[in-house]
Amino acid sequence: MLTRKQHELLLFINDRLQKDGVPPSFEEMKDALDLRSKSGIHRLITALEERGFIRRLPNRARALEVVRLPEDAQPPKPAARTFSPNVIEGNLGRVRPASEDDDARRVVPIPVMGRIAAGTPISAIQSRDHTISMPPEMLAGGEHYALEVRGDSMVEAGILDGDLAVIRKCDTASTGEIVVALIDDEEATLKRLRRKGASVALEAANPAYETRIFGPDRVRIQGKLVGLFRRY
User: Fold this and answer.
1) Which of 34, 39, 142, 187 would be a feasible disulfide site paired with 183, CB 3.0-4.6 Å?
2) What would the DSSP string read from start to end of 136-179?
3) Which of 153, 169, 196, 224 is catalytic?
């Protein structure tokens, strides 16, 4: 069950998405709920995300998506349709040969969300460009997306400029894993994660680039590298 403030915020975000196509800013949420600071909004959003009502979109600063609404805010379900069987004509029981459509149904579309830097961080990814198709056996469970790599800071990890990095969406990672890191909710980069005490280090795989170290509140993990596509 949601608290009153959580319920109010969820409906406010959903209403703005329906009207404007974009979520409200944290300042607008704070004013709408008559809160004194944006830290209260952060706590409410985290609670709604943990309960599965919203989710944060990968690599987009402050981008939110409403996954579901409370039962008391759901539109009425349409009446069930009466089952009416169709008549099957001819060739009953004949095995249909495999076709290209069957093969297409056995692949998974992965959205390509834009470009990411493997070098000096570039602006956070903002839009979905197109999709690529991958066989499901090449993907672990969970949600995936792809990013076009720009830069050469990960060449010693086999990641080259122009590669398509396949990312499994997650918000945690172990030290040593290659991750998509969002810095200060503004800059996205592909680096190897290292933890140094309470700090987070983003390590390049190219000696020409320095390791960058941040406080834990400045870096959010957006996913882990699980594969690469490369065109020759």
Assistant:
1) 187
2) GGGS-SS-EEEEEEESSTTGGGT--TT-EEEEE--S---TT-EE
3) 153
For the question of residue 169 being annotated catalytic, the response is no
Q: Which helix (H) or strand (E) holds 5?
A: helix 4-20
Q: Is 153 a known active-site residue?
A: yes
List the pLDDT tens digit at each of the 232 positions of the chain: 678 888 888 899 888 888 877 788 888 888 888 888 888 888 888 888 878 888 877 655 557 888 888 776 655 454 455 444 444 444 444 445 544 444 445 788 888 887 887 765 545 555 566 788 877 777 777 888 888 898 899 999 999 999 999 998 999 999 999 999 988 887 889 999 999 888 999 999 999 999 999 998 999 998 999 888 887 7
Write the CB contacts of 35 (distance below 8 Å, at least 6 apart in sequence). Answer: 41
Neighbours of 84 (CB within 10 A): 5
Closest CA to 148 of 123, 103, 118: 118
